[in-house]
Amino acid sequence: MTHPNPPAKRKRRTADDWLGLNDGETILDENRQESRRKRIKLERDHAKKLREEAAALSKLWEDEISKRPPATPGTRGDRKFYARMVKMGQGDCIALSTPAGRLILVDCGSSSKEMDETKEKLYTKRVRACLEDPKFLGPVQATDAFGKPLKTPKAQFVDILVFTHSDEDHYNQLATVLADKPNRVEVGRVYHSGDFAGYGAANRWVRSHVRNENLIRRVIHNAVDPTKTLKDGEVAGEITLEGIAVTAAKTATDIDCLDAQGGIRIVAETDPACTVTILAAGVTNDYKKDKDAAQGKNRGSVVLLVEVFGKKLLLCGDSTRSTEHHLMTRGKYAAQNRVRLKGVDIVHIAHHGSDCTSSSLEFVNLLDPKERALISAGKEGVSNHHLPSKTVVDRYVKRFVDSGRGKTPPHSGWAWDSENYVPPKSLQFPFAAPVYITGSHGDLDITWEQA
User: Fold this and answer.
1) Coiled coil where (predicted)?
2) In whole angstroms, how far apart are CA 333 and each of 203, 236, 261, 327, 349?
3) CA 214 to CA 255: how far, in whole Å?
4) What gap in Å lies between CA 409 and CA 432, rounded to an integer?
5) Which strand (E) or helix (H) includes residue 96?
6) Is 30 contained in some domain?
């Protein structure tokens, strides 16, 4: 007869119990987890090693550039600083040539809807003309030192390529501009915001022309001041290159490091001194209801500061009021930024002169530019964008006038007036200060030299 309350069967202890595994886990599960941990560690170690090797290679190139003798006057590396903001219609493309001869290309795109620009691709021709200028990339070297033709022309080198963000009008012409030169142009280092897969044909072109893919790096510089309490939805942020925390520079010539003011230094030249620094990138918080698109690409733009010969050039990409607020108030290095941004010499006005997203009065007053304010935008642009805004132009003009720097040769430009016209209307206005627009004034050049 079966006992009505049989004793509970004693649970057999297994090796799983001795390992302290949870119910349902097995030794196999534990082995899988351990294998996964080891695999992840190996992958991370391998990626770190590749980045270290790439960084070492980059340093060798940097050292080689620093030893170049001065070039012929009027050519790249002649110890002067050159910059050109190319007339792209609705778009951006800025070439920088440092005193030691580094070529930096910031963005290369256009979504111009103006007929002459679109039909003839005039902006593409202008970018090519810019790059072939001896002050920038220069003409193709197709002969040797004795004047004999080379079977394969020597490769030209873009030292640094910066994509401020992945809106098409900032990258979509790069592959087109260089399409017929597959074996002639090589790229050193690449910095970008956002996922690089979002850069379309530019992504593919870069990967086939960069000297080392480990030097294509996503840059994030959005860390919030740790002494300030995070607001609702705000994240602490980070300062990283391809996910690796950026460390402080140990010497004045260290690159891809934090300088004394907290910027990521990507160029550090001496004799003469020239630095290029990333002040912000990947800002995500919508601090000022900046009317950015849902993805927040614009507020995440890379913001660059060039310092050379005691002068400063600020390049803002499509950064927004939220980016500005991060730079001035919420960022980890906001106090340092307010000092180094005060009284810049030339500013590339953010987001093609948009008043909808950018150029807050507080930011304009802080910058208080000494020399010029430049806007990359079409003469009439894209009608539903209303760029550049006359309100932004007037804001900068007033800043120049109030600072006593309003005297400038008489000139005029086209801007969209949304205050006196509904819907807004593009009209030509006289400018009483050194504010210039590519669509109205053509390519905008900068030449600085040692005083």
Assistant:
1) none
2) 31, 13, 7, 7, 22
3) 15
4) 8
5) strand 91-97
6) no
Inside any domain, residue 162: yes
Question: Which structural domain range is residue 220 located in?
Answer: 45-58+76-140+153-448
CB 84 within 8 A of CB 134: no
Contact (CB, 8 A) for 169 and 92: yes
The pLDDT tens digits for 399-422 are 999 999 877 888 999 999 988 988
Using CB atoms within 10 Å of the CB of residue 437, give its burial: 0 to 12 exposed, 13 to 18 middle, 19+ buried. Answer: buried
Average pLDDT over residues 106-110: 96
Contact by Cβ (8 Å): 450, 79:
yes
Q: What is the CA radius of gyration of the chain?
A: 26
* 254 vs 248: CA distance, rounded Å: 9
Sequence-distant (6+) residues with CB within 8 A of 61 are 159, 188
Distance, CA of 367 to CA of 97 (rounded, Å): 23
Residue 28 forms part of a structural domain: no
Residue 3 has pLDDT above 50, yes or no: yes
Distance CA 112, CA 245 (A): 38
